[in-house]
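Long-time lurker. I teach an intro course on protein structure, and each term I like to show students one example going from raw sequence to a predicted 3D structure in token notation. This year I'd like something fresh instead of my usual example. Would anyone be willing to generate the tokens for the chain below so I can use it in lecture? Attribution to the forum is fine with me.
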Amino acid sequence: MGAGGLCVVDFPGPPPARAVRLRPVGDGELELQYRVVHGYRRAFRMAGEGPALVLIHGIGDSSDTWARLIPDLARTHTVIAPDLLGHGASDKPRADYSVAAYANGVRDLLTTLGIESATLVGHSLGGGVAMQFAYQFPERTERLILVSAGGVGREVNPVLRLVSLPGAHLMLSALRLPGMRLQVGLAVRLMRLLDTDLGQDAPELLTLVDALPDETARNAFIRTLRAVVDWRGQVVTMLDRCYLTEGMPTMLLWGDRDSVVPVRHAFGAHEAMPGSRLEIFEGAGHFPFHSDPDRFVALVEEFTSGTAPAAWSRETWRELLRAGRPGTAAGQPDTARSRAVERDLREASERSAT
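-- Reply from a regular --
Happy to contribute to a lecture. Here you go:
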């Protein structure tokens, strides 16, 4: 969970079915809105009625990535899709772009909108932000839906590791040159012809470069990336504090051909989160909600209607902290934890996102 994490146990059976209120979503509801928080303009989309559902995009992306899904989800939910600071139409100051800072920003935006608790849906970096939010503000988190989430292992696409190095500004600028884009386009077509995993994701990843039109946007992107990735890979982990959100309904959604965050991270995270649910999108890459939006929407609606919101308790939280993570000196050994997960924990950076 950024530097924190989550772990869920079997939760009670599904609550009584709630009355489903379907309503059409007007085009005006999908337009960007703005709130100024701490002096910075924050863009977001908000539509629908019902239980709150927050959609958090990945690095270099924006709320526009959810545009096709929002109308369907907003038929039964109040959907809030922010442009994280430094992304999309939000301001891009020289600021703290850590996952903890992003979690604070999501909390503050929700507070200005009068939303006290929500189900969080996070993609890639947004998955790390969602998990960090659940760690920092468990009383405001009803459920977690993690989509190709970062923070569950060191491995990450080598291109992102490369961009974290000095000189990344020049590299990103060069990618926007007409001649370079032609060469990159040819390489992408070749990867697709060869049916590689990177070929699956390359077209969508290139659109993220197009979303960095100037120096300010590129600076914000690089600062965000370096907060979570270095030349060795991901530098934050959700696994070390997974026990703290015991009882949090959690679902993992992953493409089996994800070239950015390998699908094996999904299986490792699922094993580390007893009671979690794992859904694999066959043939999909890093954006399974783009590859099969109908299935994605159906899973989200089924999960939110079929599970009760997490019931946070200060006393339970205190006891979990005192007991410590299973397998540590303060807690009891966790024989179910695999050696692979333990290795990820040992190799995870000491950097804390709190």
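Some talking points for your students: The two ends are 10 Å apart (CA to CA). Residues 167 and 173 are 10 Å apart (CA to CA).
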